[in-house]
# Entry
Amino acid sequence: MIRKIILLILVMGIGKSYAQDTKEPQNDGTATEVVTPPKEEKSHFMLRGFAQFGLDASSDNVEFNMTSFNPVILYRQGDRFLFESELEMEYMSNEFSLNLGYASASYIITKGVTVKVGKILIPFGEFGEKLHPSWVNRMADAPLGLGHDGGMLPMADIGVELRGGLQMGKSKLSYSIYCVNGPRLKDGTMGQEEAGMLSWENMNDNNKNKALGARIGILPLSNSSLEIGFSGYYAKPGNSTSPYAGDSMNMDLNYKDVTALLTAIDLSYVKQIAPLKGVIDIKGQYNMSDVSNATYLKPGDTNRLTNRYTFTNSSTAYYAQLAYRPTMAGNKILKNIEVVGRYSVYNTPVGSLWESTQSQISLGLNYWFSWRTVLKVGYQMSDGVPAGMSGMSMGGASMSSMSTSTVNTFQIHLAMGL
Amino acid sequence: MNKIKVITGLMFSVLIATIFTQSCTTSKMIEQKSGAQLWGENCIRCHNMPSPADFTDVQWATIGLHMQDRVNLTDAEAKKIVDFMKSAN
# Structure
């Protein structure tokens, strides 16, 4: 670890010296009237961000909500150093939360290599890092499983990242590789109904080993319209010691060797297509999470023979989205209208106390007032057995016997990039 | 589950192979792309395209760095796009 840090500092140092040979504007003094080119400010501070305000209505609830107000602070020093940070302010279901979305410093070491440190957005798949701001996301909310609450994927974490883009012939390669604190395994000692889940809110790490991850994006077409991304993330999320150390009955339970492997494929295709008179935007992401098997304790059962259970700890979440906007239409109003549809699914492990299956069809009609101000009107049909309903189905009773519930929601949201 | 992994692996290898064979050919066509063209191709992929007039030169320098990082643009692309934004605002 120490060797890695020293190496990083060295690399940064080399980058710095390379940065110093930037050109100064030359002035030979021969002209009588010297027009000096406007000097670029060496450093620049910028406040941006986004906000979303809306109304969600279902058959038994009508609610105004402020799903996001996220100021983003950017600070540039020279032409290689950038600090970026995002505050997430959310007011939902009577609760206000303030979160540090990300706060990281990046430095371009050399062509195609940027080093980034701090609380970084995790480049796992495409949605979390590149599409989550409400004015970028074409739907009013995140796909199932990819949101902030109860999501199965890492969103942001503290660590180091190397990333960049490289031209390879007519294709391009986009890479990110990172090392972060990683998730914590909920072993059931704090909230037995969540045993086996990964907790991503983990600013103090619970063990020595770090999580490692990478995403490789390939843009095979020379016009950059298609990107296919492959992501992997590996962590050992368990505590290094047994949480039942003093409990003679359960001290054999240990989670230090539990491993978590997450993988994802994402796809993005965006292109203006003349015969269709507009822009087609296709997005999709398929995510899998596999946590190795472990034994947990059943709530309220003290019988040594029956109080343990295990399950195959695999979750999947995926979505596919298609949007179309007639940007080439003659009519000014029509030009700004966009139709969008999304199908999304989220399945949590069968046999766990948080077993659930959810699917959702979302249809949306957007009106763009500017390139980053949009009114989204949506209709969402969600089906599923939410987590907790299948509580005691452990080790057998399948979810199909459970009645699925359907909720239809009407949404109207105004999202603004600030 | 395993099938998916095999298919992913296969797709990945095919893509990598394609890239390596392609990268042997010269990419004059890429080198000759203008900042305006790169702006049109790249800045539409996640959000609508901002127009150069939306920001000042200093702001474009900062945004250029921010987007180069977020999108993993190549250095040449980022430079050409920012130069174009500054010249057309």
